[in-house]
Amino acid sequence: MSKVEKILSLVKEAMAQAPPPAQAPQKSETRVQFDSHTDNPFVAVFSQRGFSIDGTRLSFETLEDAISKEYSITLNTGLVLDAVRMQKIVKYKNLY
Question: How many structural domains does the chain have?
């Protein structure tokens, strides 16, 4: 056996004995209720793909742009996201 073949066989043995890499548990989604003590509470569902409010998917970039331009966003359900509500949602940007 040449040195290369010996090294290859040692590497194969070591790889066969090594445990598989540990994977972090996957979070499926996180539901957060906002403004629960007001007349218009709403639930945002955060996941690895982003977030949605009442079935409407939005991006954090859209919210950040709207905040910087002092816009408000009206969803199909009639819920109005003003700057304060949008800032509460943006706090969850690094959740996943």
Answer: 1
In sequence order, the β-bridge partners of residue 47 are: 50
In a domain, 63, yes or no: yes
- SS3 of residue 64 by DSSP: helix
User: Residue 4 is inside which H or E element, if any?
Assistant: helix 3-17
What amino acid occupies position 28?
A: S
**Residue 61 forms part of a structural domain:** yes
Instruction: Identify the helix (H) or strand (E) that includes residue 24.
Output: none
Q: Is the model's pTM score more than 0.70?
A: no
Tell me the C-alpha distance between 10 and 12, whole Å: 5
List the chain pLDDT tens, one digit each, 96 residues: 688 888 888 888 877 776 766 666 666 899 999 999 999 899 999 998 889 999 899 999 999 999 999 999 999 889 999 999 999 999 999 988
